[in-house]
């Protein structure tokens, strides 16, 4: 608002007019020019950016740059801003988090104050002691202010010791207060449940803890011991034993001292008798004898170690009457003149014990030392016991009964728990899925059997043979498996020297005998010739030459099959037209994968002859969902087929372009 009059307007007291043409507020440099007028009428910007973020703000100037006083900070706000320190660009500075609160059960976990104390207990019903001192340990647990009192176990004290007061907060008085660690100190008495304990000392941790808390500890005191326990620890009175011999002196002198002799009982004169080893123990403490039997693994005897139990054995009897019941009554000193003593046993001499004669051939080192010190005997040369060599029984392998394989049956003869015979794993891995197939005819006087044809398969991985008869319609014979996988032995082979048929025995025209049936080999797969030529060093020259002579007339046919010339009897134009029609029909079967079909057929042709067996070809097509039942596809298969029930799959693959 301008205070200067404009030309043409009356300037009266109390009347002033705002010039809308003034472009600046009072105080602006342009306001001092009377002729100035507004030239810009846009509104002030209320949108701003700070640190890349948009925010709204109140306008500070009006239209045309006129200053507004409405949105200006007040004097109080300015004072507050002047007294407030600067802040960071992104707001107030973050304060450091307060230190975490640590509860008492964490701060004082496994921290225990230990005090040594004792209490006095009266003994009213004893003439040897009037009171006893019992030492205890007082444990104060800082984590929960609990106390437990434990008395260490003293050997042969006759008092049930251990935990006297279980761990809990012990009441201090009748007002509900409990004992605190501030109440404990050395050289004081503390009463818990009517029993007064005298605290004499504490451990170093307890001393450091209490002194760190400002508690002044009393000097330690000496622990008081029980007078009766100290009296019992005094040396016992020594008595002089009379020099006369008595059994108590013998027992105390030779207790746990035993003489050991190694003996043999020869019982070969009786039926099924043998030399049996025994150990004779002579106990010096009471002149008793014990005989123990030595058992060996698989000796066939019951595991009773004691042959004669520990007892005094009589050596010489009194002339007894025939009516003395010795089988019922025990033998006493009245029936025996002399008992066995240590001087009756010697190495290299026989000894009769209860009617059995034992020959002592050796003893242990303690026995040698005893006889050397007691009787002056120094000859303890052990006697060598010669055992009769057992009669060797020849092991005769029983004849083969025809069940299972020969190697499996032999394991039953070698061990009670037969083990599986070892297999040539390397041979199995190298010849896995390698099979030699032959066509054989049955040699039989029956004219019907002579027309039957079989397929003999020889598995190179395990040298097994299987025979299969293809079913023939209206033949009256059910085909199928004729012989399962097994190894076929040659005629005349024995159990000791078993010989089995191998690939070198299977030649064209040869006869093999399979469990009483004779077969003549009439044909073979080309894979047989290829395998023999690749492993010529493993086959006789006659076997390899017979295969070459047999397959020589087929070489012309093989060369023709490997070329693109169609099968005989089919023109190339007719085959091309049929392939084009099949390709149009296969467009409807969009799920077929042509590359998989081509790869599967090529993989099936292991000898790369270009031909596949019809049954094998159809099985591969069925596994890949090829529509062989369609009319055009079936016709193409017929055109690609040739003699010997084989199919030229190379012409068939022309319908499946890559």
Automatic annotation (TrEMBL):
Q: What is its main location?
A: cytoplasm
Question: Quick one: a GO biological-process term for this protein?
Answer: mitotic spindle organization
Which GO MF terms are attached to this record? alpha-tubulin binding
Which ranges carry the DM10 domain?
A: 109-214, 255-375, 432-536
The record ties this protein, via InterPro entries, to: DM10_dom (IPR006602), EF-hand-dom_pair (IPR011992), EFHC1/EFHC2/EFHB (IPR040193)
Record keywords: Cell projection, Cytoplasm, Cytoskeleton, Repeat
The record's SUPFAM superfamilies line, in alphabetical order, gives:
EF-hand
Superkingdom in the source lineage: Eukaryota
Q: Which SMART domains match?
A: DM10
Q: Which GO terms describe its cellular component?
A: axonemal microtubule; axoneme; centrosome; mitotic spindle; spindle pole
Stretches the record annotates as Disordered: 20-41
Q: Locations of Polar residues compositional bias?
A: 32-41
> Cellular location of this protein?
Cytoplasm, Cytoskeleton, Cilium axoneme
Protein name as catalogued: EF-hand domain containing 1
Q: Which organism is it from?
A: Gallus gallus
Instruction: List the top taxonomic levels of the source.
Output: Eukaryota, Metazoa, Chordata, Craniata, Vertebrata
The encoding gene is EFHC1
């Amino acid at each position: 608002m301008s205070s200067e009059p404009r030309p043409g307007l009356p300037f009266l007291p109390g009347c002033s007019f705002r010039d809308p043409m003034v472009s600046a507020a009072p105080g602006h440099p342009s306001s001092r020019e009377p002729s100035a007028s507004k030239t810009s009428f846009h509104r002030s910007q209320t949108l701003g950016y700070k640190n890349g973020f948009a925010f709204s703000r109140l306008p500070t100037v009006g239209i045309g740059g006129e200053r507004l006083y409405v949105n200006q900070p007040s004097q109080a706000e300015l004072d507050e801003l002047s007294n407030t320190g600067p802040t960071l660009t992104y707001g107030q500075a973050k304060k450091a988090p307060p230190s975490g609160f640590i509860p008492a059960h964490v701060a004082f976990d496994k921290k225990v104050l230990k005090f040594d104390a004792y209490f006095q207990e009266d003994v009213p019903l004893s003439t040897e002691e009037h009171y006893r001192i019992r030492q205890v340990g007082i444990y104060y647990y800082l984590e929960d202010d609990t106390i437990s009192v434990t008395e260490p176990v003293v050997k042969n004290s006759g008092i049930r010791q251990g935990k006297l007061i279980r761990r809990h907060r012990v009441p201090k008085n009748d007002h509900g207060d409990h004992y605190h660690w501030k109440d404990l100190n050395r050289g004081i008495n503390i009463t818990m449940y009517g029993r007064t304990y005298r605290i004499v000392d504490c451990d170093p941790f307890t001393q450091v803890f209490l002194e760190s808390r400002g508690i002044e500890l009393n000097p330690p005191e000496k622990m008081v011991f029980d007078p009766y326990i100290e009296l019992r620890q005094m040396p016992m009175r020594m008595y002089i034993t009379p020099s006369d011999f008595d059994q108590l002196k013998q027992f105390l002198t030779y207790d746990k001292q035993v003489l050991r002799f190694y003996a043999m009982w020869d019982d070969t004169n009786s039926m099924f008798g043998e030399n049996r080893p025994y150990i004779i123990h002579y106990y010096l403490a009471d002149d008793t004898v014990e005989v123990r039997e030595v058992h060996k693994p698989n000796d066939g005897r019951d595991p009773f170690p004691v042959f004669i139990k520990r007892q005094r054995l009589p050596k010489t009897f009194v002339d007894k009457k025939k009516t003395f019941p010795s089988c019922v009554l025990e033998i006493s000193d009245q029936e025996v003149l002399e008992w066995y003593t240590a001087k009756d046993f010697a190495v290299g001499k026989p000894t009769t014990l209860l009617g059995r004669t034992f020959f002592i051939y050796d003893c242990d080192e303690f026995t040698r030392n005893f006889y050397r010190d007691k009787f002056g005997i120094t000859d303890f040369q052990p006697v060598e016991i010669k055992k009769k060599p057992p009669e060797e029984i020849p092991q005769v392998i029983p004849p083969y009964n025809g069940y299972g394989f020969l190697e499996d049956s032999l394991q039953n003869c070698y061990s009670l728990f037969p083990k599986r015979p070892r297999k040539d794993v390397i041979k199995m891995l190298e010849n896995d899925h390698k099979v030699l197939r032959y066509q054989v005819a049955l040699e039989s006087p029956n004219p019907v059997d002579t027309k039957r044809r079989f397929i003999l398969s020889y598995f190179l991985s395990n040298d097994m043979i299987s025979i299969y008869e293809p079913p023939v319609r209206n033949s009256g014979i059910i085909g199928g498996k004729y012989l399962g996988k097994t190894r076929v032995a040659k005629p005349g082979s024995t159990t000791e020297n078993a010989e089995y048929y191998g690939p070198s025995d299977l030649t064209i025209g040869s006869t093999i005998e399979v469990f009483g049936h004779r077969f003549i080999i009439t044909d073979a797969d080309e894979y047989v010739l290829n395998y023999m030529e690749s492993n010529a060093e493993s086959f006789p020259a006659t076997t390899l030459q017979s295969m070459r002579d047999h397959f020589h007339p087929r070489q012309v046919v093989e060369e023709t099959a490997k070329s693109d010339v169609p099968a005989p009897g089919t023109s190339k134009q007719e085959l091309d037209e049929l392939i084009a029609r099949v390709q149009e029909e296969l467009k409807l079967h969009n799920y077929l994968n042509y590359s998989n079909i081509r790869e599967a057929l090529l993989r099936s042709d292991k000898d790369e002859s270009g031909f596949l067996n019809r049954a094998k070809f159809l099985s591969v097509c069925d596994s890949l969902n090829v529509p062989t039942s369609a009319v055009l596809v079936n016709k193409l298969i017929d055109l690609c087929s040739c003699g010997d029930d084989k199919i030229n799959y190379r012409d068939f693959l022309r319908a499946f372009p890559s």
